[in-house]
Amino acid sequence: MRWKSLVPVAAVSAVLGCAAAVGIVAALDLGGGHTTTVVQQAPLRGQDASGGGDASGLTPRDIYKRAAPGVVFVRAQVVEQTQSPFDFGFPQQQRGEATGSGFVVDRDGTILTNAHVVSGASKVTVQFADRHVVDATILGRDESTDLAVLKVSAKASELQPLALGNSRAVQVGDPTIAIGNPFGLERTLTTGVVSATRRTIQAPNGFEIDGVIQTDAAINPGNSGGPLLDAAGRVIGINSQIETGGSGNGSVGIGFAIPIDTAKRLLPELEKNGRIDRGFLGLDSITVDKSLRDLNLPVDRGALVQTVAPGSPAAKAGIRGGDIVAQLNGNEVRLGGDIVTAVDGKKIRTSDDLANAITRKKKGDEVKVDLVRDGRKLTVEATLAQRPATQASGQG
After folding, report:
1. Per residue in 202-251, pLDDT tens?
2. Contact at 8 Å (CB) between 16 and 183?
3. pLDDT tens digits for range 123-146
4. Is 298 helix (H, G, I), strand (E, B) or coil?
5. What is the DSSP letter of 144?
6. In whole angstroms, what is the distance from residue 395 CA to residue 316 CA?
7. Any catalytic annotation for residue 48?
8. How far is 128 from 159, CA to CA, in rounded Å?
9. Could you give the CA distance from residue 110 to residue 132 in angstroms, rounded to a whole number?
10. Selected catalytic residue, list 101, 119, 142, 146
C-alpha cells in the first residue's frame, strides 16, 4: 500500500466546498434553529444485531435524523514550532486550527474522535447540533490506533449517545453511512458500502493499524473522527483516512475507518490512564507465504525476521535478523534470519499475527517465542519493553 497517498481526514483551516448529489433533497430541523440538508436515497437493508436476518429497513434520512444530534464538530487550536530564516535559528510559534468530527458515546459527556484531530492541541472545543460550543478535555490519546477520548460538560439534551455496533460482523457489501464535517460543512451525510475489510493503514506514529474497514462512502478532510454507521444506525467504525490516488487530498471513493471493536476495547484504559501500555519486542518481519516459496524456507508459515533493534528485548533474547540482502519480485528481502512460528504457544502464521500477539501484551510481560533457525526448532524467552512513541524498528 502506498502510504504517502493515505491522508488523515482532519481539515486544517477548513475551506468551504460543495458537492453535487442525486436524489430527493429533504430539510431536517435538528433544533436550535439549525436546519441541515440531506439527500434521501433508497432504503438501506443490512444485518440485525445477531449478525443475520433483515434489518429495520431504515432509510438514510431515518438514520441521519436519529444519529446526527450525537455527531459533534471538533475544533483544536494548534501551536506549532517553526523555524524562521530571519531570526537566526530561533524557533517561532505558529498558531492554527484543526477541525474534525467526533461522536458522543455516553451521557457522561464522553466523546470519541481521532488522535490526529487533537494532536498538539492547546485548546479543544466541541460544537453540538444546536450550535452550542463547549470546551473539551482530552482524557486520552493513542496514536497507535489514531483514537482520542474527549470529555465535555454539556446540557443533557445535547448528549445523544450513538449506539455502538460490532465491527467483527461487518462484511463486504454491507451498507454504510458516514456523518461528519467535511471542509467545515456541518453534519454532512454520505452513503456507500463496505468495499473491503481487514485492511492495514499507517497510524500517525508510524505503526500499523490492522482490521480496518474500507468504504466507498465519500470521506473528506473534516470527516476525521466521525462515525461510520451500519444500516441500523450503529457505529461500526471511526473515519480516519482516505486514499487520494494522486496529488490531491479529496475523496476518490476509498476511505478507511478504525473498527469500533478496537475503540471499545481501548476506551476504559484511555479514560483511566490517558494512554495505552503496549509491549514491544523490537523486530521487523515479513510473512512467510507462497511468495517466498523460491527461497526454500524450512516452514511454509510464520514471520521471517528481517531486522532486530539493537538493545531491544528481541536482541537480548538472541533473536536474529537476516544478514543477506536479496531482491524478490522487485522487493528487498533479508535472508538468513529466524522464523517466528509461535508466541506463548499460539501459532504465528503471518507478520500481522506476530505484531498483534505482542501489541496485546504490556511492558514487563515475559513471552516465549518459538523459532526456526537453520532448520532447527528452538524457544527463547523475552521480557517486553514499552512500545516507543514512534515507529523506529519493526512492528513487534
Report:
1. 999 888 888 899 999 999 999 999 999 999 999 999 999 998 766 666 66
2. yes
3. 999 999 999 999 999 999 999 999
4. coil
5. T
6. 17
7. no
8. 9
9. 16
10. 146
pLDDT attached to residue 23: 35
Distance CA 317, CA 81 (A): 40
CA distance 112 to 24: 31
Grid cell listed for 330: 522487485
What CA–CA distance (Å, rounded) separates 348 from 378?
15
Please give the Cα distance from 165 to 95 (Å, whole number): 38
Phi-psi label, residue 344: left if phi above 0, alpha if psi -120 to 50, beta otherwise: left
Average pLDDT over residues 12-38: 37
Query: Could you say which of 195, 224, 251, 351 is catalytic?
Result: 224
Radius of gyration of the chain (CA): 23
Rounded to 5°, angle at Cα 221 from 80 and 206:
60
- What mean pLDDT, rounded, does the chain reach? 84
146 is catalytic: yes
Query: 101, 116, 142, 312: which one is catalytic?
Result: 116
Q: Classify 326 as helix, strand or coil.
A: strand
322 burial via Cβ count (<10 Å: 0-12, 13-18, 19+): buried
**CB burial class (10 A; 0-12, 13-18, 19+) of residue 77?**
middle
Number of residues written out for the chain: 396
Cα 118 from Cα 190, distance rounded (Å): 24
Q: Which three cell numbers stand for residue 308?
A: 532486530
What's the pLDDT tens digit per position in 271-285? 999 999 999 999 999
34 carries an active-site annotation: no
Q: Map grid coordinates 532448520 to a residue.
A: 375
